[in-house]
Amino acid sequence: MADVELVGFxxxxxxxxxxxxxxxxGVNYTLQAKVDVRSEEYAREHHPFKKVPALRHGExxxxxxxxxxxxxxxxxxxxxxxxxxxxARARMRQWMSATADYLYDSAIRKLAVPRLVAxxxxxxxxxxxxxxxxxxxxxxxxxxxAAGPWLAGDSYSLADCVLTPIVFILGQLPEGQEAREGxxxxxxxxxxxxxxxxxxxxxxxxx
Length: 207
Ligand SMILES: N[C@@H](CCC(=O)N[C@@H](CS)C(=O)NCC(=O)O)C(=O)O
Hints:
By secondary structure, this protein is of the alpha+beta class.
């Protein structure tokens, strides 16, 4: 089979999720981490909207993590990361969409990025103002996880690949830990998702 190349810096939660999926499936791939996402060359070659991740697999080039995650699951052997049952599948997509549209904003864009990547990009007031929203979002996810170990039921799915790095990143930040306080189902999710070999294998360099 053709080589698989994933493009994007590994600290990005979206890149991280696709790497977790590749690891879960047992796919050999290379990571092209040094990219200038702002360049026109990057837009031409990989992602017209200048974001990460992008994927190259032989003649196939893809951008957007949703498309990449499903491609990985469908094209490669290994455990299925999309449930066969239509309700569980819809549930998985529901949580992927909710993570991308709501939790990513409160946890990553408005907390992790200003704290870890671009200090000063948001005022302290704006960071504090977002925290109650983050807490509400996490409560919803905690409620979803009350019924079972993973977001779409009994087996680890693409929705869990997406949630795993975000929950971990929150655990690295005092405000993230506070926002997670008392949410026991999320704690269990953190523990179990971080114990998977795919998590260790996809862990980006921290520092
Ligand atoms: N909808 C995109 C979102 C990707 C995204 O927002 N990536 C961020 C990193 S987590 C990025 O490329 N940031 C670089 C920038 O905006 O310059 C996807 O699902 O792949």
